[in-house]
UniProtKB/TrEMBL annotation:
GO MF: protein serine/threonine kinase activity
Domain Histidine kinase/HSP90-like ATPase: 10-117
Lineage: Bacteria, Bacillati, Bacillota, Tissierellia, Ezakiella
Pfam family, one: HATPase_c_2
InterPro entries named among the record's database cross-references: Anti-sigma-factor_SerPK (IPR050267), HATPase_C_sf (IPR036890), HATPase_dom (IPR003594)
Name this polypeptide is given: Serine/threonine-protein kinase RsbW
Domain of life of the organism encoding this protein: Bacteria
Length: 128
């Protein structure tokens, strides 16, 4: 099982929702575990909406790019916006109370095995 996919979407909430639905349908072709699919939906929704609101500040001229890589043992999702970015965050699951990020980033961190947010890019890895 191998997927390498990258696509960009305009900073428009309705287009982002349609885009995320399309990506989830694509991921379903490679992953059938509904718990993992639920987590993928959460990751995509939280990170792309966060990018639209906080990164691109709803500027319709800015894009959000999502990269999805699936191999036998993991799915990697990278979301990048065209905003000014945030300080680098690489939380430690054992010390999550010290996590400095919004609700969406906390939710994503809770369902992935690896998480890093740096400037205008978030990288998540979930083991399968």
């Amino acid at each position: 099982m191998l997927l390498d996919y990258s696509e960009s979407v305009e900073t428009d909430i309705e287009r982002i929702r349609e885009f995320n639905s399309k990506l989830v349908s694509l991921v379903r072709e490679y992953i059938t575990d509904e718990d993992v699919i639920f987590d993928v939906k959460l990751i995509l929704n939280e990170l792309t909406i966060n990018s639209a609101l906080h990164g691109n500040r709803l500027d319709p001229d800015k894009l959000i790019t999502v990269y999805v890589h699936i191999q036998d043992s993991e799915i990697k999702i990278v979301v990048k916006d065209q905003g000014c970015g945030i300080d680098c965050i690489k939380p430690n699951k054992e010390h999550n109370s010290e996590f400095v990020g919004g609700r969406g980033l906390c939710l994503v961190d809770a369902v992935v095995d690896e998480f890093e947010a740096c400037r205008n890019r978030v990288v998540c890895v979930k083991y399968l």
